[in-house]
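User: Hey, quick favor. My workstation is busy. Could you predict this chain's structure for me?
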Amino acid sequence: MIFDKDGQTAILFQENVSLQKFLENLKEGYDKIKNDNIIVNLTSFSRLTAEDLPLFLELSDMHREKGKSFVIVTEQVTFDDIPDELVVVPTLREANDLIEMDEIERDLDLE
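Assistant: No problem, here it is.
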């Protein structure tokens, strides 16, 4: 797992591994980024389906309960097929914008 930090946001990229291995690496390295907002960039996975995304649901729920954002980036799925509990956007720009809006809402106690 490769990650890049931008302030309080960790952007995670996949290595040349399977989605399952990427998720295992994310869980193993979670303690390093647990206090950051997380963007999981899955744009390089060419065979990603909507059925793959619920694999991230448990980690996403746990992270969001801590008051941090967890956003998945992919254009490979139809957004109507994604569980409502997951936050999925098609671009990194939209992920960053969404986290910025989440931070504003948290600062204003709107959540």
